[in-house]
Amino acid sequence: MLNLMNFEWKKSWKVFMLGIASVLIVYLYLVLQGTDNLYRGELGAGIAMTILVMLITVGSAALLFQSISFLSVDVREKGYLLFSTPNSAWKILGAKLTVVFLRFFIWGFMVAAIFFHMMSSLKVEELQGVLLHNVPQIIFLIVISALASLFFTMTIYFLISITATVLASWRHPVLFVILAYFGLTYVVDWVAVKLGELATWPVTFQWNLPMINEMNGFSITGAINYSAQGVSFNIVPALFYLVIGVGYFMAAGYLLDRKLNI
Amino acid sequence: MNTRIEIANLQKRYGRKVVIQDMDLILESGKVYGLLGPNGQGKTTLIKCIAGLLTPEKGQILINGEMRETRHKGMISMLADKDLFYKWMTVQDTINFYDTFFEDFDRADSEELIRFMELVPQEKVEKLSKGMKARLKLVLVLSRKAKIYLLDEPLSGIDPVSREKIVETILDRIREDAIMVISSHMVHAIESLLDEVILLSNGKIIAKEEAEVIRSEKGISIDDYYLEVFRHA
Description:
heterodimer, A: alpha+beta, 8 helices, 73% helix, 6% strand, globular, B: alpha/beta, Rossmann fold, six-stranded mixed sheet, four-stranded antiparallel sheet
């Protein structure tokens, strides 16, 4: 498994590290030039948020690209090399997912570090307080985001495994993956929300500062709720996502091991 | 331990096109089999089915009496007719890859073969010519002490000098405890290597004969035998 992870890491580590280094160098340059003064006031907050949104967008695009590359590289002719080794498809998928998780984690920490710096540059004492007193909560959010990215990747891998095996003769595999992704995600999220309504087992990570009291709560897929009180994590739909994710993993591994045509 | 591959009632389709039709075949260790036939007759498909890269619709492939599974890939050393390396790989990276993933890979042997084939370890694989890529693939495949070798068109598009080196290397690496299957439509180039000849046409075995029988009893070369069979096919 470690061998496979090492191989997965090597496949595109240069691009990944180049991305990290570029962002850090550009940011450091801006800071050294005194650009952090821009973050002051309302305009500063806008600029900070724009940079943050850009970083998250780039990270998401990279995640999407990496997931789709499973179709263009691994289950096509280039997959000869990997699938001719005596490793089961589960091991191959496991290694790929672990590397995705690690990369997302590294990227997440970099974004969080930049976010910390921006917020402290805003010179708003309450915001600095929010950040400094909520480090465990922020780490928790990064872990949850990394797990969500893992679930997204696994869903894409599962759909790609279908196109490479039982639907190998279909002419538009990417179109299938995109349409099936939205359909499947809609159904899974709907069930998760319903389960969350039926059975509630929340774990709440309280924010350690009461200043954001006007913030409205909002929900993503019924598993996590952000609110003025903190991050509420409902275990019931989360368990459902876990079961579905494991199901995708098992089914994808089975299909690739038994039905693959490359 | 001897190795045996039993193929029974095998069928493989690409869409509606049947590429392998109800094929029965037994391959045993100590022999070099020539899988011969013009392009598009099912040679590559059969090799990929044995290697586990294609899933047949019907029939079974048994290796030493067991259904072929992922773990059997550790016994199979396959040379693909396609370019299978990643862009970022150097010659040394490919060696490391094989050394990491195949227990039977002999690193010392690979280093010797790299020198013999005049390959440069630091060179990027994508910069290699077709002939040098073919040499590299052969180095990787033959540096393994595998029980089953599947060489798909090892000489296709290769210049005569490289071809000679490749045939010489294959000849040196033939073992009594291993099965070697070489697919090619360049019969004359691999003729000297073969113990048995299997001729494929439209996904069916149309002839299977010992090379020695063809040469001594029929009194013709395998190349002539091939032409004769396909003229009447």
